[in-house]
């Protein structure tokens, strides 16, 4: 073991609270106290690793320092992909940093150190939520989430794919939360706090899995941090500060049952930080000796307030090494290199130490494949599918496969363990100077820069843009920031790679000087301007005067206060917000890219006006109908434009819920066989379809003609309207884009076209109407005697003829809770016992399509097969009946003891149920949705046979034969198109590359024909 | 966090005769498009003893400022000698560059300025009434003093300043945690406090 204390890694003597080595091993970050702010510094790793690099002055040591944090930085952590750095500090903020490539190194202006920033790291996101100091941050495996914990006693889980969205705030700690660690398998996150507890939370539902208090009951809140760590095999969690027999320990917590039987003992003061080596080791095979099967083990470093560091192997009972007096103050953070042989430690005393181990000392690190097989053995999950690092060990045989693999990994390919340094980073930032050197520009800047006068005579300078920011993926706002250059096409505007000559760049924002303005003139500025430039005859003396003598420095002290004194804003200054003084129109004409709030204001107010007009007309409509009668509740059911916001899974909706593509209706509750017909109202109105413009209004007994009372049905759409009269009172009226159906008190059903033409003479029903739905040209009727009928009024045929609900109702005391008709004319009936059935007219059977109590549903866990688009993709009758928050493995966590193969089977069965349900519901989009999830699941879990069968069915016979009964389409979707969609999914697992190639080739062949 | 970072200020035409205009080449970086202009000012401190003698040499609006790195040269005329106390004309003083956004100052860059006669004879026996024609101005460009202030980048300054002159009555309604009118203390994100203004 070698030990080094690189003295050049320091924060000018201020404490260093955190250290983290970049995943590519080329750099590391430190966080701590700066001069009067928090400080994050990124350092070059090479001078730490190699002495010759340390001596070479051409190799930079400091890469970048950021003093954006307002107060001390407590934690810095690189994302697993190495693209981002997260930092949390006493200013309650979490900042996410990303490398931006500018035109050159820069310094922090005005800072005493003259060190240039070699790399530019830019804060791309500030996460504000905590109300107290942020103590620790941690990226989840695969960088899906970022967790931060704070002295406000909470842990916030941020959506790392969509900052600054918060996934969940974990509340439960009653003291300062000072450490976080993710389970490497991704199932848990653990936190340790000053409240004498260590809590393990499930990532499944973000609920508390276990609360461990016993080993911490004696602990006092004396440590600044409590950085706990999870072993790379996931089997052990090691806490920071714990007590055993009033001696400080690091508690070992077993994943199996959260047992706390072991601990690391020996430190004389509280343990502040524990960090597991990312590698799993196995015993070094000595030459000549027969390879003995030895148990793999982990390695763990423990740092303490007693200023010493110990390194442990889980295979040994005593520490591998203990280093005392490494620092003058408490150890604050530890980080391992990815290869597992190097270790950086930082201390409150402001120094860091580097430990370099050899393989003889630690053992042979397992490669990723071996590590994965361990994971697979323990957890049954092949984590490998999402691990890039494993790819190196498998040869990709097919160029298409390579393409999918690359697409999956995304463009910025993180470097491997031996990554070759900064030049690999993508330089998205473009130099807009186009050939002209910065020096040339500087020479002429004063002449070249555009200066105008505002109407009140103030000078206005258009700054020369010398570099644009890259469009960080967290900051869509910046995307719009690319200046719209005259003559540049729309496509180039979208890419940041715009270059233009400097004069064009100069001219952006150039404006006629006669801008109208509302500002009151700034007198002082004007006066100063008018005083004119009268150059006093100049004596060109080049003697540089250095202020070195003591007498000269003295008056400066008197002046010092003037530097920091904050100028009180004079009235003239406060007018700044108005001094832009240009009308929005002018701005638009100029084509500048600057956001113009006025324009936005105008448009928004404009749309508000429209809304106002709308609601006015609505109010008017209401007024027309009111007349002392109860306005039907349904009136409120205006469809929302945003389908995402719709409450889809209301079990007993009182108001009709309309779905964007599914103009189906949900009926009012019905008690079967007990005449639960809707009560007759004097007047009511409903909406038709999803467009908010079509209304059906019913007014019963509107007029009396020769003794007969007539009821009026009125249809209106954007001013067009028709009405018709019916001899009986109307109970239910409903419509679709094609037809309007009306059920009357006298058990008749009338059907009209959308233009009001009667399609069929009144249909006589066997019982009063209970629920009535229209969808497309289908009409569904549910009568009070529990029979179902569905007609296709266009073809004038019955799809379902007085089918009894007895098969689904008998033996239960359930009632129909809702019913709907899909656009394909499939009737769906949901019962109050949570079961949902549809009637298949070709099989003439009731089919169970959803069951809220179904244990399969509750235990299936396919969340890792969901892609982000999928979440929105499944809108349709199945989603509607099953409810959106279809548990998705909600209960699976409670059955954590369930063997993996059982869970696998459950999920498989569930997904196959879903697929067949979508088929029977004729819901094409949902079929596609579930097919892709199913395929992903098969790929993830390695069901090759089923995958092959699926592909075979989608592909069909390659050669035409008359005997084949293969249908080329399913629900109107071409099967081979579906296969084209499924193949990339298969392409994501290298295990199936032969299968992928096989079907890819056949598809290609068929396409050629 | 500040949306605008000043990356560099280069002092041009330095040293120069006292009457030459000041020239500062300012490079700054902006995190995102600014809907409003930045206002830059050069303030010449006439006397260390009192603010009374401060002269705002010029103020200039800089905009539009899209996200990115920008530079410009801020040129302002030499101070009006009539406003400088005679005793303070020769010797060390300060020139300040300030930048405000929405009326809030977020950076103040100070330079020591040494005004001296170039002529040795004059230097040893300075005339009672300063001879500005013979004075040379030397800005100690290598040692800027930078002070950064945290401001509310989103909100409007007028609101913050107005509240200073508002009747106490409406403020009585404010929750005790909200200190109206004061610039937010360091580290406090002003977004929240704006809600109650």
From TrEMBL, chain A:
<dbReference type="GO" id="GO:0000785">
    <property type="term" value="C:chromatin"/>
</dbReference>
<keyword id="KW-0539">Nucleus</keyword>
<dbReference type="GO" id="GO:0006338">
    <property type="term" value="P:chromatin remodeling"/>
</dbReference>
<comment type="function">
    <text>Required for replication-independent chromatin assembly and for the periodic repression of histone gene transcription during the cell cycle.</text>
</comment>
<feature type="repeat" description="WD">
    <location>
        <begin position="127"/>
        <end position="159"/>
    </location>
</feature>
<dbReference type="GO" id="GO:0031491">
    <property type="term" value="F:nucleosome binding"/>
</dbReference>
<dbReference type="GO" id="GO:0006355">
    <property type="term" value="P:regulation of DNA-templated transcription"/>
</dbReference>
<dbReference type="InterPro" id="IPR031120">
    <property type="entry name" value="HIR1-like"/>
</dbReference>
<feature type="compositionally biased region" description="Polar residues">
    <location>
        <begin position="407"/>
        <end position="428"/>
    </location>
</feature>
<feature type="domain" description="CAF1B/HIR1 beta-propeller">
    <location>
        <begin position="1"/>
        <end position="362"/>
    </location>
</feature>
<dbReference type="InterPro" id="IPR015943">
    <property type="entry name" value="WD40/YVTN_repeat-like_dom_sf"/>
</dbReference>
<keyword id="KW-0805">Transcription regulation</keyword>
<protein>
    <recommendedName>
        <fullName>Protein HIRA</fullName>
    </recommendedName>
</protein>
<keyword id="KW-0804">Transcription</keyword>
<keyword id="KW-0156">Chromatin regulator</keyword>
<dbReference type="GO" id="GO:0005634">
    <property type="term" value="C:nucleus"/>
</dbReference>
<keyword id="KW-0853">WD repeat</keyword>
<feature type="repeat" description="WD">
    <location>
        <begin position="170"/>
        <end position="201"/>
    </location>
</feature>
<feature type="domain" description="Protein HIRA-like C-terminal">
    <location>
        <begin position="756"/>
        <end position="954"/>
    </location>
</feature>
<dbReference type="InterPro" id="IPR001680">
    <property type="entry name" value="WD40_rpt"/>
</dbReference>
<dbReference type="GO" id="GO:0000417">
    <property type="term" value="C:HIR complex"/>
</dbReference>
<dbReference type="InterPro" id="IPR036322">
    <property type="entry name" value="WD40_repeat_dom_sf"/>
</dbReference>
Automatic annotation (TrEMBL), chain B:
<comment type="similarity">
    <text>Belongs to the ASF1 family.</text>
</comment>
<keyword id="KW-0805">Transcription regulation</keyword>
<keyword id="KW-0143">Chaperone</keyword>
<dbReference type="InterPro" id="IPR006818">
    <property type="entry name" value="ASF1-like"/>
</dbReference>
<dbReference type="GO" id="GO:0006335">
    <property type="term" value="P:DNA replication-dependent chromatin assembly"/>
</dbReference>
<dbReference type="GO" id="GO:0005634">
    <property type="term" value="C:nucleus"/>
</dbReference>
<keyword id="KW-0539">Nucleus</keyword>
<keyword id="KW-0804">Transcription</keyword>
<feature type="region of interest" description="Disordered">
    <location>
        <begin position="162"/>
        <end position="186"/>
    </location>
</feature>
<dbReference type="Pfam" id="PF04729">
    <property type="entry name" value="ASF1_hist_chap"/>
</dbReference>
<protein>
    <recommendedName>
        <fullName>Histone chaperone asf1b-B</fullName>
    </recommendedName>
</protein>
<dbReference type="GO" id="GO:0000785">
    <property type="term" value="C:chromatin"/>
</dbReference>
<keyword id="KW-0156">Chromatin regulator</keyword>
<dbReference type="GO" id="GO:0042393">
    <property type="term" value="F:histone binding"/>
</dbReference>
<dbReference type="InterPro" id="IPR036747">
    <property type="entry name" value="ASF1-like_sf"/>
</dbReference>
